[in-house]
């Protein structure tokens, strides 16, 4: 799992908690264990950021692994890490709906912030397709486009 070793220092490098051996070890345990549990997916870059949030809020790596496995298998996130780009649009749409329902102020900000403000000098400024926040979709696409499957 050489890629996991390379990605650990890149995960939340500015957050003091992620500089401690305890959290790094917990993240490694979660990522290695999941890669062994789901050999079809293995480890894919980007999983480290999901694991980081879970490890930060969990008491044990076992607890974080259970939640990570639930997110991947039950919530369907493993499809993203298998490269199913059509599923990313579905998840972005679901996230947009949940934001609208539960965190309306953030939803309004993400949906109606013109992309030209996100990239200085850009002429992008469009309405979200099918009610999907362009910010949410861009985040999903950036994660997917920079991810590659690693099975080492």
The proportion of residues forming helix, as a percent range, comes to 55-70%
Cα separation of the termini: 5 Å
Q: What percentage of the residues does DSSP assign to strands (E)?
A: under 5%
How does the helix and strand content classify structurally?
mainly alpha
Going across the major beta sheet, what is the strand order? 1-2
* Average pLDDT figure: 77
Outline the low-pLDDT stretches: 118-130, 142-152
Give the CA-based shape: globular
Number of strands: 2
- Rounded Rg: 17 Å
Number of contiguous helices: 9
Element-by-element helix/strand order = HHEHHHHHHHE
Could you describe the 3D structure shown?
There is one protein chain. Residues 118-130 and 142-152 have low confidence and may be disordered. Helices cover 62% and strands 3% of the residues. The longest helix has 18 residues, at 85-102. It is globular. The chain has a two-stranded antiparallel ribbon with strand order 1-2. By secondary structure, it is mostly helical. The protein has helices at residues 2-7, 21-37, 47-57, 61-73, 77-81, 85-102, 104-112, 115-118, 134-145; strands at residues 43-44, 149-150.
């Amino acid at each position: 799992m050489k890629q996991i070793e390379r990605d650990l220092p890149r995960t939340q490098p500015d957050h003091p908690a992620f500089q401690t051996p305890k959290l790094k070890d917990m993240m490694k345990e979660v990522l290695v264990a999941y890669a062994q549990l789901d050999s079809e997916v293995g480890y894919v870059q980007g999983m480290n950021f999901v694991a980081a949030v879970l490890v930060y809020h969990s008491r044990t790596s076992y607890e974080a692994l259970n939640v990570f496995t639930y997110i991947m298998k039950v919530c369907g996130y493993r499809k993203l890490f298998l490269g199913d780009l059509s599923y990313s649009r579905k998840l972005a749409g679901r996230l947009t709906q949940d934001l609208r329902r539960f965190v309306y102020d953030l939803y309004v900000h993400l949906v109606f912030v013109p992309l030209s403000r996100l990239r200085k000098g850009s002429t992008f400024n469009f309405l979200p397709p099918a009610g999907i926040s362009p910010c949410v979709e861009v985040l999903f696409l950036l994660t997917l486009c920079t991810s590659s499957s690693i099975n080492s």
